[in-house]
Design a protein that fits this description.
It is a single chain. The chain has about 500 residues and is an alpha/beta fold. The protein has two domains: about 240 residues, ATPase, nucleotide binding domain (Nucleotidyltransferase, domain 5, 2-Layer Sandwich); about 220 residues, Nucleotidyltransferase, domain 5 (2-Layer Sandwich), CATH 3.30.420. The protein is built from 19 helices and 23 strands. The strands form eight sheets. A six-stranded mixed sheet has the order 18-19-17-16-22-23. The protein has a five-stranded mixed sheet with strand order 3-2-1-5-15, with helices on both faces. Helix 2 packs across helix 4 and helix 17 crosses helix 18. The radius of gyration is 23 Å and the shape is globular. The N and C termini lie far apart (about 65 Å).
Length: about 500
């Protein structure tokens, strides 16, 4: 029997899963670690925590399973994107990593845009300057911690630090490197022009691979810590969303997935590179060699429903606890009793500002149409519909760019709700499916490892062999025009409120 390992390095913890070559889970283990917020809007983690968690979880899945480590053919790593890891010439960490959700770099984004040019930056990196991306973090350290920057010999992304500890190699791959804002997205290599204009030494950056390529093998030291065999191949892996795409089979034109987690993502595969000149969606290299993906992000997707639950559904939480049920299960039942349109009540899910399609940190949440007839359950359904409409905004941008969408997969916590899946199907006017496996990113990078070591011929062939789907949820034909009418009202609200958001932020 042959096995593959997928490591999913997240913000709250690292999960390692051992799979057989059919995609069945043999063993899994998660280890959590802290996030540090030394100032408001800052977010950091200790790279050593990531490596300790990875080593501990690898050893745990091998021990749990009783599998012979020699039968583990390869390993892939998925990771939170955009984090900055800085090492000195001995490979020692110089400071805690500034991670994806850190917001300290607004001035550095202005500096980046000024030096490269707004349009040119989008042409090369496919995205406008953003506080979350890595390039602005590098500039921040150079501007505010010059003594640390002077000692820096290597710059890595979070998952690539774990790779370094496993293999001793300084390597990255195209999907994660796309989120640094230093990659030439079209040519899948570091951009000499951007690096030169920002005065960043190319020698600081890791070698770039395609996601299924072998980037190194497990060292003797790492083998002793993890229980893996020395020489086990480690492939490029992928950023978290690119890995999830492989783990759900979204690796061919016409396929997309929608995730409703804390934030929401609409992610579509494309064989031809497509860039939105307005920068409303992200275009990155994907984990399939020679292909790309386009991604829209809703900042406050599942967060909106959690906010509503925690503030207005205390009774449901208490009843659910007594029943041994998830509160969201009861909330779904209540929302299902409310008609489409929530009795003419709309919700804008901008609790944390917005990225797609508005890229506006100042916009905030709104209930529109609130009247004396409305109950909290009308508001509950309006929240769910508003998040769905916000993801339809992403779909509309993708369609405008010529990206085909024929098949939609639903992932994340929201994807487990039949009601929310039906809303998505009716609002997008297409079938919505779910996958049998819940392991998304970990399965995706395990598949990439299998391609890298020759178990599968290609990423597409591997997904056809490994990914299994549940029955699709088709749109209900009479619901489609009703949702469409409400969506057309929804999409006019942000432009009408845009100036008011600015005024409110300035108070």
């Amino acid at each position: 029997m042959q096995y593959l390992i997928g490591i999913d390095l997240g913000t709250s913890g690292t999960k390692t899963v051992l799979f057989d070559t059919k995609g069945n889970v043999i063993a899994h283990k998660t280890v959590e670690y802290p996030m540090y917020q030394p100032q408001n809007g800052w977010a950091e983690q200790d790279p050593q925590d990531w490596w300790n968690a990875a080593a501990q979880t690898i050893r745990s899945v091998i021990t749990q399973s009783g599998v012979n480590p020699a039968d583990i053919r390869g390993l892939g790593i998925s990771g939170q994107m955009h984090g900055l890891v800085m090492l000195d010439k001995e490979g020692k960490v110089l400071r805690r990593s500034i991670i994806w959700c850190d917001q300290r770099t607004a001035k550095e984004c202005e500096e980046l845009t000024e030096k490269v040019g707004k349009e040119r930056l989008i042409e090369i990196t496919a995205n406008p300057a953003m506080t979350g991306f890595t390039a602005s973090k590098i500039l921040w350290v150079r501007n505010h911690e010059p003594e640390i920057y002077a000692k820096c010999a290597h710059i890595l992304l979070p998952k690539d630090y774990v790779r370094y500890e496993l293999t001793g190699e300084f390597a990255t791959e195209v999907s994660d490197a796309s989120g640094m804002q230093l990659l030439d997205i079209k040519n899948r290599c570091w951009s000499d022009e951007v690096l030169e204009k920002l005065d960043i030494d190319k020698a600081l950056l890791a070698k770039v691979y395609e996601s299924p390529e072998v980037t190194g093998t497990v060292t003797k030291e790492a083998a002793a810590l993890t229980g893996l065999c020395e020489g086990t191949p480690v492939v490029g892996g992928a950023g978290d969303n690119a890995a999830a795409a492989v783990g759900t089979g979204v690796v061919e034109d016409g396929k997309a997935f929608v995730t409703i987690g804390t934030s929401g993502v609409v992610f579509a595969h494309t064989n031809e590179m497509a860039i939105d000149p307005k920068g409303r969606v992200h275009t990155f290299c994907c984990a399939v060699p020679g292909c790309w993906h386009v991604m829209g992000v809703t900042q406050g997707a599942g967060l909106s429903l959690k906010w509503f639950r925690d503030n207005f559904c205390l009774e449901e939480k208490a009843v659910a606890e007594g029943m041994g049920k998830d509160p969201y299960f009861l909330m779904d039942q209540q929302a299902e009793r409310v008609p489409i349109g929530s009795h003419k009540l709309l919700y804008l899910p901008y609790l944390m500002g917005e990225r797609t399609p508005h890229l506006d940190p100042d916009c905030r949440g709104v209930f529109f149409g609130l009247s004396a007839i409305h109950t909290k359950y009308d508001m509950l359904r309006a929240v769910m519909e508003g998040v769905t409409f916000s993801q339809r905004d992403s779909v509309e941008v993708l369609r405008e760019m010529g990206v085909e969408l024929h098949e939609m997969l639903a992932c994340g916590g929201g994807g487990s709700s039949p009601l929310w899946r039906q809303m998505l199907a009716d609002t997008f006017a297409c079938e919505v499916k779910t996958v049998v496996s819940k392991e998304g990113p970990a399965l995706g990078v395990a598949i990439l490892a299998g391609v890298g070591v020759g178990i599968y011929d290609s990423v597409q062939q591997a997904c056809r062999e490994v990914i299994r789907y549940k029955d699709p949820q088709p749109p209900i034909s009479e619901n489609v025009p009703v949702y469409e009418a409400y969506y057309q009202v929804y999409r006019k609200l942000y432009p009408a409120l845009k100036d008011n958001y600015k005024q409110l932020a300035a108070l």
